[in-house]
C-alpha cells in the first residue's frame, strides 16, 4: 500500500509540476465553462486532423478546443489520483503537494499582474499621474485575477477534491487567501490617502470595479475559512464610500468658505462658478456609482427658508444623487449671492447673478447633469435668470427713461424740450459709458437683454424725438442739443456686453446713423 501510494504521490506531483500549461488558470477557466465535462473526458482520443484548423472534440452539441480537452484530461487524472489517495488514508500527503505547487502558481500569477502589497506611506508618496496609472492598472489586473486566476483555481480545487469538502476548503484557503487579501487591500489603502477633490474620481473608479465583481468574489471565496477575503472586499467598498462622501462634504464646505473678495470685472463668470460647474458635470458622469454611495448616506435636509427650494423639490423623483447635486448647486448660488454684494453698482450685481446662473444652466444642458436634474429644474433656474435680467434692466436704465416726458404736449416750451434732451443726453451717455466694460458672455442672454432694453427705449425715444425736433429745427447748435438720433440709440445698445471687443465710439451726430445692428433690426 505504501509503495502504491508513493507511486501515486509521485505521479500527482509530476502532473502538477510538468503539465502546468494544461492547468494554468486561463485554461482551467475555459474548461470550467465547457459543459458535459465527464463526457468530454470519456470521448475517444480520435481527433480531426484537418490541416490549418484547430483540433476539435465534439461533446454532444458542443465543441471544445484541443487545449481545453487536454486540460480536462489532466484535471481528470488529478482527480482520480486524489480520490484514490484520500480513500486510502493518504489525504495529507495529497493536499500538501497540491497546496505547495498551486500556491506558487497563484502567487506567480499575481506577481505578473503587478499585484503586491502596498503600504500607506508608499501610496501617499505617489505623484497624481503615477497614482492614476496604478489605479487603472489595478482595475484591469483585478478583473483578470478574479475572473481568471481565482475563478480557475477554485474550479480546479473543487474538481480535484470533489470527494472531500474539508480538504477542498483547506486547500483553496491556503492557496488563495493571502493573495486575495493583498489584491483587495489596495483600494482601502488608496481610500485612506490624504483627501483632495480630484481623487474622488479614482475612488469611484475603484468602488465601481469592486462592486461590479463583488458577486463573483463572494462566490469564489464562499468558504468560511476564507471569508476574510470577502470581508476585505466589503471593507474596501465601505472605506471608499466614506472617503467619497467626505470629499463631497469637503467640497460643499470649500464653496461656502470661498473667501475671494475681488469682484469679477464687468459682472462676468466667477472662477468659483466655472470650477464648481465643471466638477459637478464630472461627478454626474458617475451617476451609477454615486447612486450606490449616496443612497445609504444621511440625506441632506432642506428647510423652507433655503434659497429657492424649488431648485431641490423639482429634481426628477427627488433621488439621492439628484438631491445631492442640486443641493451643491444651491450652495453655489447662495455663495454667488454673497459675491454679488461686492459690487458697488446694484445693476451690475444683478447682471453678475444673471450671467453666472446662465452659465450653470448651459453647463447642465451640455452634460449628464441635464438627465439627472431634469428639464423642470433647468426651467426654474431660467426663471431666476429672467428675474435677474429684469432687475438689472430696471435699475440700470430707469433713470434714462425718467429723463423723457411721459406724454407729448404741444404746449411744451422750447426751453423745457431742450432740458429734456439735455438730461437724456447726459443720462444715456453716462449709462452707456458705465456699462461699456460690462459683459454678458452668453450670446443668447446678451441679445435678449439688449433687445429688451431697445424695444422699450428706442420707440419711446423715437416718439419724443420726432415730435419735438420740429420745434427745435430752427435752433442753432442743434447737434449739441440733440446728440442722439433713434438709430444712434439702437446701435449704441448693440455695442454693449461684448467680451474682448472694443466698443465703438458714441456717435454724437444726429444726422449720421450707424449701420443697422442686430438689436436695431429686432426693434425696427
Automatic annotation (TrEMBL):
Keyword Manganese: no
GO biological process, one term: exocytosis
Regions of compositional bias (Low complexity) in chain numbering: 28-43
Recorded superkingdom: Eukaryota
Domain (Exocyst complex subunit Exo70 C-terminal): residue spans on this chain: 136-495
GO molecular function (one): phosphatidylinositol-4,5-bisphosphate binding
Region annotation (Disordered) ranges: 24-61
Function, in words: Component of the exocyst complex.
Entry's Gene Ontology cellular component terms: exocyst
Lineage: Eukaryota, Viridiplantae, Streptophyta, Embryophyta, Tracheophyta
SUPFAM superfamilies: Cullin repeat-like
Name this protein carries in UniProt: Exocyst subunit Exo70 family protein
